[in-house]
Amino acid sequence: MNKPLSLRINEIFFSLQGESSTVGLPTTFVRLTGCPLRCGYCDTEYAFHDGTVMPLTDILAQVEATGARYITVTGGEPLAQPGCLALLRELCDRGLRVSLETSGAMDIAEVDPRVTVVMDLKTPGSGECDRNLESNIGRLKRVDEVKFVICDRRDYEWSKAKIDQYDLGSRVQEILLSPSFEQLAYRDLAAWVLADRLPVRMQVQLHKIIWGDAPGH
């Protein structure tokens, strides 16, 4: 008899989406434990190891109990757990709008096509730029989103080059540029984007503006 699928969950919480094209919408977040990357600006180091093993059925029950229409599966790096694929599929089967926050370092080939992938291409300032998996670019769908966390001018220029190299403007619905929290001034990134008339969405982390670094938001 097959053992029921379980995943290690760091937290499940209901909050406002702080980033991406659904920013500001009430959303239930499922944060999975574990991440093979160590980005210098990481703000979820508590998710590297802390977590509770939960059966998939219990996870789904908790998510449905929140009553949210929008669900974000995040981490850490959620795809580091193979069971994440089944979780995404089951959430979609329930008619929920599901997004996956993932790095550019994990293969997205098997992610359910109903899921909106928000892929964080790692910039040089992250310290993990060499981990980006180039094959992922060809697997992006039109409804997906690509995010760049910008630490400095070098990161900005690198991101501009990648946007051109991969023709991201015609490949995905949103290109997101986010200043690294307390590392790059909002107005600096805004000025660069406007000066270059860059076809991107600049975003700030709404959840941090409201709640700071408190977990569960």
From TrEMBL:
Its cofactor is S-adenosyl-L-methionine; Mg(2+); [4Fe-4S] cluster. [4Fe-4S] cluster binds at C35, C39, C42. It catalyses: 6-carboxy-5,6,7,8-tetrahydropterin + H(+) = 7-carboxy-7-carbaguanine + NH4(+). Keywords: 4Fe-4S, Iron, Iron-sulfur, Lyase, Magnesium, Metal-binding, Queuosine biosynthesis, S-adenosyl-L-methionine. The keyword NADP does not apply. Pathway: Purine metabolism; 7-cyano-7-deazaguanine biosynthesis. GO terms for biological process: tRNA queuosine(34) biosynthetic process. Pfam families: Radical_SAM (PF04055). Belongs to the radical SAM superfamily. 7-carboxy-7-deazaguanine synthase family. Catalyzes the complex heterocyclic radical-mediated conversion of 6-carboxy-5,6,7,8-tetrahydropterin (CPH4) to 7-carboxy-7-deazaguanine (CDG), a step common to the biosynthetic pathways of all 7-deazapurine-containing compounds. PANTHER family: 7-CARBOXY-7-DEAZAGUANINE SYNTHASE. This is 7-carboxy-7-deazaguanine synthase.
